[in-house]
Write the structure tokens for this entry.
Amino acid sequence: MAGQGDSSDKKSKEVMNDVSTFRAENLQNNMKVVYYSRTFLSIIGGAIAGILGLTGFMGFILYFIAMAITSIGLIAKAKFSLHSYFDCWNRIILDGFLGGLMSFVLFWTFAYDIVHIF
Amino acid sequence: MAEDLVLDTAIRDWVLIPLSVVMVLIGILRYFVSKLMRSFQVPDPKIVKEGQVIVRARNLRGAANFIPPKSFRSRRVYFSNEENGLLFVPKGQAQNAQAQMFSDPNIAMDMMKKNLSMIIPQTLTFAWVNFFFSGFVAAKIPFPLTQRFRSMLQNGIDLSTVDVSYVSSRSWYFLNLFGLRGLFSLILGEENAMDDTQRMMQMGGFGFDPSKSLSAEKDGLDIVQHDWALPKFEHRAEAVLKKLVS
């Protein structure tokens, strides 16, 4: 997975239940990493779907699988202690979920056309 | 519905691939051109000062719970009292700053350069696509769509019998235009990713007014509920130590 190397440089070690010890910039940087990984994975996923020749629903299912893999990969990268890096679960699981769809469709179409249509 | 069309391989080699490659290269070119054209402005000391004050106030707000109540209150007064607080903007000055912002030709100029560097390549590419590749099917999207999308995907072909999932070359250009944004943000850094959409939104707030953000920050600081965290930290430390000992 690309671009996650710097996800370890931030953060507030303690998980306080009552006091928020987050720094906005670090949180933002983490969000950027999530966004990068999602875009990257959606492009790769699009190319894979196209080369495999998936059509219709299968392709979108592959997109959701790719996004789920991204989430799992990011959680693993955060060593399963989400709260050291993000303030809530939604950040890693839902944010930007549909943002890569356009790139996915483009690369899916591109690879599919090149490999299967002509 | 018509059955599958057979597309010529030459279309792939001479339309589909070149079009996409050109779009990517033009995007990269545009990024570097706009980087070159970005003029360096000597920042106005007053604006820099105000920006720093805002950053300091924000830090105070963020870390409010880590200092004792008394220190927090004295700092808050320093920032937001009504006589000479740093965040307090006298009524008359606010108008002034905005008027000056508008009359400064450099800012408008910079704005225009940025927009031109975005619009010119797009118009040129569109004209190029129109001129060379108009009027034939260039691609097929791998999922079915309803008739509603016909005008979007088959821009430039006026045939109602062609299946909707076939894409005309002009529409392939539009697909590229939107879909490549993600790729650009990967290869050029996030700076470029926010270019198109976000800048258009910022355009609404053309005359950015520093005094407005000053008073917004002042309001934010005024409503902070101070709650000193240190006593809680002691409890927490006690709990942790107890757990360790037992």
About this structure: Chain A has four helices and no strands. Chain A has one domain: 20-117. Helices of chain A lie at 24-52, 57-77, 89-93, 101-117.
